[in-house]
Amino acid sequence: MSRRLTGFTPSGDLHLGNYLGAIRPVLADQASDDTDTVVFVSDLHALTLHHDPAEVRRRTLEFATLLLAAGLDPDAGLFMVQSHVPEHTELHYLLECLTGYGEAQRMIQFKEKSGRQRQVRTSLLTYPILMAADILLYDTDEVPVGEDQRQHVELARDVAVRFNTHYGATFTVPRAVHPAVAARVMDLSSPARKMSKSASSAAGALRLLDQPDALRRKIMRAVTDAGSAVAYDPDRSPGVANLLDILAGCTGARPADLAARFDGYGELKRAVADAVVDTLSPIRTRYLRLASDPDHVRAVLRAGAKRARERAADKVCRARSAIGLLPA
Ligand code: TYM
Predict the structure, then answer these.
(1) pTM of the prediction?
(2) Label partner for 267 (CA 20 to 30 A): which of 25, 30, 153, 156?
(3) What structural domains does the chain harbor?
(4) Ligand 1 centre from 51 Cα, in Å?
């Protein structure tokens, strides 16, 4: 049995990078008896930067609805909102006691995000440890994520090994898994930067809820390069390579093979637009249907949290006892 787990932070708009990098990989084979899939909306992570409470609540439901629309089967594993399972925060504290301050400070995302803030929340520093708790709570073997999360999964590995060494075998040691292509989808308008959920990248991000026209427009305006020949060369032609990665991610072909099929950038962009619209339109249609019944989605999340708590409680109990806490 392979146990897979991943989470999505409800800040900004979910986009094609999230879909190709993590949503589709975690949902692959979810119905197989050999796979146990845990997917959650990591709402607590959305509190690490300045936030609007009403917006976090709204996005949490939107993300959950989009994950269902993308094909998540809530009965095939666990599906919940992170904060509905308080065991995540309890284990977070225990794991903080095994993580060095310097270790947390070295995280690339912390350096990048804290550099842009005037007041840095302590939770921004400790959030990878909460992520480690998310992962270790469910005996996860594989963590399907985009490349930007690799370092955080490495930290979870280190903490798991450290806990097991000091306090006895308690946690499964997880590993990050990335899709063969599109593990780092870049922004269409500035291909040196990854596609992101933030509002500032609206022109360069292909959002799961964008209308087909908007998707086409953004792709046709994507920054390419000075030349005109279509070749797969991420270093010298990052804009074109990104389009080829997106096309490959949507169609299952290899980016270098695809390059040979196009004579010019216009033709390539039209093919990318068709493939992206074909991939995202059904998700948007299902989303609109599901979003008309939010009570149903909330009931699904409640049932998921109840089952998750049963599993998580056992693990926290073992960790508490191993680390030296007196049972009540
Ligand atoms: P988040 O919400 O920023 O991103 C969700 C997932 O999408 C991937 N991703 C990308 N993949 C390819 N190209 C891109 N441009 C791109 N942008 C984002 C991310 O790598 C991620 O897999 N901390 C996490 C959520 C989380 C989590 C966890 C993940 C919380 N607990 C436990 C795994 C395991 C986050 O904020 O991801």
Answers:
(1) 0.97
(2) 25
(3) 2-178+293-323 (3.40.50.620), 199-290 (1.10.240.10)
(4) 18
